[in-house]
């Protein structure tokens, strides 16, 4: 075990920690193979199942089995947190290690739809965005929730890119004066290690079958034709992004206007002027006002 991992183990094990039990479980399952060379079995704890499949809906089943709530609720208003980087798969609720998973969000949204004690839902958003994979399906789930119950997206700081796509599916969006919204687009980052490998005297040989099998590999400069194909794919994502945003924002922001933003990020007042948000407001005050409104329904 390296010195660094030894220090990590010393900080985590055999010492009192003030941490949520589920988070501690996740940390040990994640770090266990690196610390001990094999998976960790935690006595007396339900297995979190280190599997990547979505279709069995293990997270929803586990929450039902354990009788756990999928979200906090105040006065009949469910609060669904969209925080940090957004990833496709991850069998947890809320943010963990700086990430929120679409898998967790979709479980929460589904439960909010079918829970009769939930009169409305708030999306609490503070995220720079994340993966394209899974975001459109999650946005569709939010749109269905908004069609059935009152919803509001409250930005505590920012909703950019994928996070804005999700927020746009709420009936209303409130954001701080100096918060940020937008970035309606997508990006691919290609890394070219060839110069660094040449300097180190390392040569990588890729043996492949199929003319495009190794397109975009990190051991060579990106060719113009491959870059053009990637850009074409991103243009399709951006077009679909704008269409979905327009569907959620209705008359406030058209798909053409969303495309015209050219993936720019806007601060509060400009975002409201352009139709990306509905109002400027303090998040706590907006939440209180929404709860009062829902209580009169």
Mean pLDDT: 88
Cα end-to-end separation = 60 Å
In CATH, the topology of the largest domain is named 2-enoyl-CoA Hydratase, Chain A, domain 1
Helices, by number, come to 11
Secondary-structure element series: HHHEEEHEHEHEEHHHEHEH
The CATH architecture classification of the largest domain is Alpha-Beta Complex
Largest sheet: 9 strands, mixed
The CATH homology group name of the largest domain: 2-enoyl-CoA Hydratase, Chain A, domain 1
The total of beta strands comes to 9
Overall number of structural domains:
3
Q: What low-confidence regions span 5 or more consecutive residues with pLDDT below 50? A: 46-50
Structural category:
alpha/beta
Strand content: 15-25%
Using only CA atoms, what is the Rg?
Answer: 22 Å
Q: Name the helicity range.
A: 40-55%
CATH class of the largest domain: Alpha Beta
Based on Cα principal axes, name the global outline. globular
Topology:
Blueprint: H1 3-12, H2 21-36, H3 58-66, E1 73-74, E2 77-87, E3 99-101, H4 102-114, E4 120-130, H5 135-148, E5 151-160, H6 162-167, E6 172-175, E7 180-182, H7 194-200, H8 224-249, H9 255-260, E8 265-267, H10 268-274, E9 279-280, H11 283-295
Parallel strand pairs: 2-3, 2-4, 4-5, 5-6, 5-7, 6-9
Antiparallel strand pairs: 1-2, 7-8
Describe the structure.
By secondary structure, the protein is an alpha/beta fold. The protein is 43% helix and 16% strand. Strands 1, 2, 3, 4, 5, 6, 7, 8 and 9 form a nine-stranded mixed sheet that branches. The relative contact order is 0.10. The model is unreliable at 46-50 (pLDDT under 50).
